[in-house]
Each structure stands twice: as structure tokens, then as C-alpha cells.
Amino acid sequence: MDEFVQTRTTNLAKKRLPKGFAYIEDYQDDAVTPLESRFQVKDAQGKAVNGLKMYHVLDRKTLSKALNDMIDRSGISPKSAFYMWVAEKPEEFYKAYVQTGMDLYFHTPMKNKKSFIGKYTNQTFQVQFGNGYYSNVVVNHVPELKVQKQVYNKLGDGQNLDGKLVKLGDKFYYFLDGAKLPANRGEALKEYRFFDDFDQKGDEFTGEYKALAGVDIK
């Protein structure tokens, strides 16, 4: 959730209304995919904000000269692809949200790309009366999730049979060790599943299985 902080202004500020108002979400496009259909902009009362037009900017060449000039004059510098919300009628926007001291909240959910591992950053910018303001840089980390499969002659402290001879008719156990997911990150975990692609010609599934948790699940 991002916040567009509004302030009460003077007559001098009113003269600068034509310089405009804008909000920019500068996301790292090689790391995340925006869930644009879920984007929301609401005021402090939870109502949808009116008067903002959204642009998804993959290349600044696609923006009008007026919007490029707004970015350049403000002094901000988006690094890659970004979303830009612009007040279409600055005076009306000013009266509805700025003059009233109303906070605006931008909810811009994004999904990690499956191929991305490592650190990525996110930063927002605000243009108010033509002046640019920077947010702090948010740093996120996508860990490499490792899944291991082993085979034992019995559950618990059994012997590892990986690479060893298993006699015809002998019973053995595949042990699937899932990736450890850190707590309190992103959205709630809704599903955790395994797919075991075993050799159906040489192996017969007996229907026995156990699911063991390495830590308490709350």
C-alpha cells in the first residue's frame, strides 16, 4: 500500500496548479509482473479516487511531450518500466484532495516472476505542483527454493539407498524434502503440494505415505 501525502497549500501554490500532480510506481520489470486488474487508488475514507489517468510506461517515448516535460522538470528519474497516474484536471484534483489535506492510497499488487531469483527494488515518486519527491527504496529478496528427493529402506533413521541396488520386491521409501518458506512474507500461503514423477514400470506405489512438518504450522 502506497500513500500519496497531500498538504494544505497557499495562494502561491494555486498559481502552480498547471504544473500538475502525478504519482509514479517504478517497479523492476525483470523481477515482477504487475497485477494491473487489482490496482486500486482510494482516499482516506476508502472511496475510489476520481480524476487520475493511469499510464503503463514501458518506454518514455510513448508518453506525450507534456508528460515527459513534467517528469524532467520535477527532477525525478524512473529507472525502468513504471506506472504513472496523472491528474487530468489539476484544479479539480486540487480542490478535492490537496486543499482538503486528503491522503490517497495506491494499492499496486505484483507477482514475482518464476524465473527470477535474488534481490529486487521498488521505489515511488510523487509530483506535486510540478515538484518531484522520492520515496525510500524498498528492497525485496526472492530466495532460491530447493526441493530434494531421497530414497530409504525404512522411515526415520533408515539407510539411504540412493545409487544402491534394490532387490525385486523390496520395499523402500521415497523422501520428498520440500523447500523451506520464510514466514511473514507476501501473501498468505494457500497451497503447498508435491508432484513425484516416479518410474511406474519399476516402482509400485503401495498407497502409504506420511506428511511430516519440520516446524510447527500455525
What is this entry, summarized?
The chain is 11% helix and 30% strand. By secondary structure, the chain is mainly beta. It has two domains: 2-142, Immunoglobulin-like, CATH 2.60.40; 145-218, no CATH class.
Shape: elongated
Query: Biggest sheet: strands, sense, closure?
Result: 6 strands, antiparallel
**What amount of the residues lies in strands?**
25-35%
Report the average pLDDT across residues.
87
What is the number of strand segments? 13
Q: Please state the CA-atom Rg, rounded to the nearest Å.
A: 27 Å
Beginning-to-end CA distance, first to last residue: 26 Å
CATH topology of the largest domain: Immunoglobulin-like
Total number of distinct structural domains: 2
The CATH architecture assignment of the largest domain turns out to be: Sandwich
- Count of helical segments? 3
Structural class: mainly beta
Work out the oligomeric state of the chains in this entry.
single chain
Low-confidence stretches: 1-7
Task: Summarize the SSE layout with pairings.
Layout (H helix, E strand, L loop, with lengths): L1 E3 L6 H5 L5 E7 L4 E3 L5 E4 L8 E6 L7 H10 L7 E6 L2 H9 L5 E4 L2 E3 L5 E11 L2 E4 L3 E5 L5 E5 L20 E5 L41
Antiparallel strand pairs: 1-7, 2-6, 2-9, 3-8, 4-7, 5-6, 9-10, 9-11, 12-13
